[in-house]
Amino acid sequence: xxxxxxxxxxxxxxxxxxxxxxxxxxxxxxxxxxxxxxxxxxxxxxxxxxxxxxxxxxxxxxxxxxxxxxxxxxxxxxxxxxxxxxxxxxxxxxxxxxxxxxxxxxxxxxxxxxxxxxxxxxxxxxxxxxxxxxxxxxxxxxxxxxxxxxxxxxxxxxxxxxxxxxxxxxxxxxxxxxxxxxxx
Length: 184
Fold this sequence. Notes:
Elements: H1 3-11, H2 21-28, H3 33-41, E1 45-56, E2 71-81, E3 87-95, H4 102-110, H5 115-121, E4 127-137, H6 140-143, E5 153-163, E6 166-176
Antiparallel strand pairs: 1-2, 2-3, 3-6, 4-5, 5-6
């Protein structure tokens, strides 16, 4: 495992060896999580949009070269098993619309296609940089989507997506620590 990723986990008091193999894969690889879930679960994954709004950011985000007041799409989604109807991943995204190709942007806003599938469909060259991963305790607003008790520990990863040498997205994906413990 890359040293920076191992340090990020340890900073959040997570010993990588205590995670299941699939949990480590989700937290430390820059692959598309939808494809990983479909392979692991042997089930198609669908996107459920919880919210999506165009808004100015309240603070500067230097890693993305965004100044306070820059307009972004703030999007919150669930990745759900199409057959089991079980929610597996929650994701929050900040998306800089004016840095995306027009057709990609329209599909993102007007369909329930995952970002990863749009990257493939439009053959968007991208680079993902994981900037943090760890564990956090979540409240009822998130725990109820996963049928877990309030104040459950969730594992997360946050990464930036770059395309054409510009940061286009910042995505944080979360799932209950109790998920993906066994091989299927």
